[in-house]
Amino acid sequence: MAKSAPPQEQKIFTTLSVTRNNPEYLQIPQENNVISDDLLLVESSPPPPQPSLDILPIGIKIGARDVLSGVLVKGAEDGSQAVNFEQWLVPYQSILKAFRFTETPMEDGSIQLRSPGLVTRFEPKFLIKDPDIGDALTIEEINRQLPVKVKFDIDSYALIFEGDWLEKTSRKQIEVTPVVLDGLPIVTPPDYAFSALSQNVNSAVANSGNLANNGSTTLGGKLGEFTFNTTISQPNFQDLRQAYLQSLKIQNLNKTTDHILGNQELFYPGSNNFGEFWGYTYIQRFGYESHIGGSAGDLNSRLINQDFVRTIQGTASEGTLVQLWQDSLLLGEYLVDKQKNYVFPNVKGNRFLIVSYPDGNLAATPQREIRILEPQYQQLPAGSSALFTSLGTWRNLNKGDFLGSFNGLVAGLGYRYGIWNDLTIGVGGFYDNKDLGFFGEVFYTNSDFPVALTLRAISPTANKPANILLTGNFKPSKDFTLAWSGNNQGSWQVQSNVQFSQKSKLQLSLNNSGLTTQASQFFSLLGISGNLSLGYQYSNSSRAFLETTMDWRQGDLALSWNSRLNSEGGWQLRNAVKWKNWQLGLTKSYKQFSRSRFYLPNSEIWNKLTIPYNSNGSFQDIYLINQVAKYRDGSVKDQIYARHLQPDHNSSLGVVAWHRNGNPASIPGQLNLTNWGWELGYGFGNQSSGLLMSVTSPNLFAGLRLQASYLGASFQNVPSGFSIGLNFNLNLNFQDGIARDTKNAGQFLESGGILVKTFYDLNNNGIQDKNESTFSENYKTLLKLNNKSLKDSKNLTLTSNGVLISTEPGKYRLDLDPSGYPINWEPQASAYAVQVAPGAYTVVKIPFVQTTTIEGIVRTQFGEPVNGARVEAININTNRTFFSITSPNGIFYLENLPFGEYQLKIGDLEINPRSLKINNLDSIPGNLELQVTAPVEEKPGTAKTVPNYRINGYLQDENGEEVRGIKITAVNTKSGETFTAVTDIQGFFRFENLTLGNYRIQVSDFAVVPANFTIDSSSKWDSSLNFKVSVSKQQLYSEAAGYIIRGKLQDKSGDRLNDFTVKLVDVKSNRELSVKTNVLGAFTIENISLGKYEIVVTQENKKLITKPSYIEINEESYPESSINVKISM
């Protein structure tokens, strides 16, 4: 084994290698970059005496998996096992690479090492600076600092590391494409818009001949920054004088301020509420923002701020990796040090998950802690506040009065302030119809103790006494909660919930009127799951009760049992049996209010029947239902059923019927009777019997629906009844035309949306003219919002006026997917930045222009076709570029070229023609011929000029690996002219200014495949061609001797030294390469072969000490490198 070289003059110096990827050596940067003096390693004290260690080339394994080979370590073995294994030296860089560690310097001088399976701190002071293998760690130190087991396997001649964290793979990161709006055309909502109208009409006539006819009209729109909404109620269309103004709301809900006008809720508790409050409310927020738009119905929703900024802290053992999560987002992580504390400052939110990995082992099962710091609804973060005030009056409706009457003055002012995150206070006053009062609020939670308190107090007024309300809760764990409330009038309540286990719990409710307690136990036995509850109630009288629920399922058969018994003699049974499409149910009770399991959606018969209920008597319901057929979406189509219902002792009704649900996928306006809903049956009652029938239409047109029914049987002794009704719901949008809308006009008060109108721009002017129609084919695949396809979105609606996208107020990116483009049409812009505001749709008009494909050919001035030329067409209005690459025959295709005027271009060459104009289909050229003036050079003795060519490619060895720093020569076999190139670090070369002819390739004396190539008139001007040498790159490098080292020589003070001899001495062959420094201290050594060299500097035959001392040239080295050498005089 090779022995390490002894240190000279008791000083240790670092070997420097000209390498890019080899981790065992320091790195020389790419050519013309000089190593900084700061990178030179300082001298260190000699290490203590160590046992004799050899340099061993070994492998590194993770378990049975090979990860590295050819790693140079220092160690010893006797042919059967490792010798003095604990003192072996392993390169630090090899450990980083094998364990997939990344390094992060810490403030205390340590280094945080992170891999997919481990995060730990490393103390770099324990690194040993070895002159042969660089920074290294002993096996003993590896075992001390890292949770691994390591052994040496003599058979595979490798170090084997074991640890569960070594096999963990990286967590897959979900890449989220950022929404970029910069540079896009901006579309804003209108400042003023009468956006929508909704009309509702309900008409019904019975066999008595009486007509009921009522409805309402709603208008919505936008007035600058305000949105408005008004509804007029029409109780009787036959007498329009009964119409009245039901509501009028005008509001501007912004980030920091709100303005609300019209009818609304008052902000202070305990108002007299003489009628409906109409007035004006103003809100100003300080230190926080709210969302734009939305509802102002609940004032607290506009005052809240849940963006609490907190500091999350705790304790953990040293080396624990603590991660802080919120939902699925990692907010931060902390590697606990000797202080055993972790801190996450300035995090927003109220619910967190703290995950702790002992010893930083990400492969181990972590400890999880849910930290909930839930503030109360009305609390504000520390330092933020809100001011709110209202002024208005009470409104009373009078029959026949459109506006109603207004009386009394109402005014109020309130202020809330977050003293700190746990405490918010509020104060205010009000005047309400001669009642003058004041109120105060206190909202308290504790970050360290699970208690919450709310105190509200209203001062006494002329008509009301003082009112003090205290509420709170105590939640020490998810298994125990305690809540209470009480006021100064003597009303109070305490509720508790104790979860003993997942199967057992106790509930208790105690108030000033009585007591209720209930204990529940879940059980599972012989495939039966159920719940048993025992309770006690005391109010005016006391009673105990027992409730039982059981469920059993086996294949298609399912049974359900519910029962309740009480000590007063009341009882109830609710049972059901299901088998495939059949269901049999029984509900029977006595002195107990009961609800049947019978469920038949959209049944007009049972909706119109008046069923008497008597909770103190008996109740019985027996039914049998068969689901005969279903629609494709799984919803029920046809059902037959029989039901006998006896709600009390005096009435009963039995019904046998067939029920069909209307097709949910039916198209509005389609009169196909199979899409209608039907119900036909016969009823047998103790009072009356007869036919039962109902029919319900789908949406016929313009929001019109028809309902009709006939009831020939009933629970009471009433005559047969026939009724027919029309329901009319019409929503119209008036933006850029009139069209039906799925959105009610009242919804525009809180939100807006996007109306996309795509149209054919026939004259390419960007404006939709009268003769230019809209289109909606493939609209689901055409549109993308914020980088997400709307193909399966439920917020996408097609109307006669365009495509509606329902979305919240804000800024959005709207993209057009080419898969939805009409054939031979393209948009002028494929993406837009869209601003959405409440009150109106933002209308995005997208013109599509007609496109075509231009076919052509490019020839030189000699009439020869041009191969590989880039033909560009640049629109003179939009500056958009279209291009095509010519084929060997000079043919090109400019595809999807919009109509317009273009500049034609082929690089910087002269071409004819230079422009192209397409106005209509008749102006499209059948075959566009372009003549290009090719670059030429004069040849001696010829009267004709010839074009120049270029060859690019890669040089590879016999194994297909790229070789670098190798000279490659192309020789013209006719003229003998030579062209030379040197491969770069990727093996790439380029021959310039080649002319027509045959060429022979030379790489030293080695055989090359292909050995030659030819350039003729059909060749591309810029071609690619790779060559392969018939030897390995190691042999090629050893013979090439083509590396160059440039550098400068300096003394310790940095002064440059001239007329010094600089030698590179091959440590194996002792071959020397020698030069002298010039007056600037610079030197250049050429024709360097692969190998390791000692740097020797002499003056007057005296050898000097150098930094660095060694340099290595290997296959990863750059062809030309720079180095600074310092000497000790």
Automatic annotation (TrEMBL):
Keywords: Carboxypeptidase, Hydrolase, Protease
A GO molecular-function descriptor: carboxypeptidase activity
InterPro entries in the record: Carb-bd-like_fold
Stated name of the protein: Carboxypeptidase-like regulatory domain-containing protein
Domain of life (superkingdom): Bacteria
UniProt KW Protease keyword: yes
This protein's record includes keyword Protease: yes
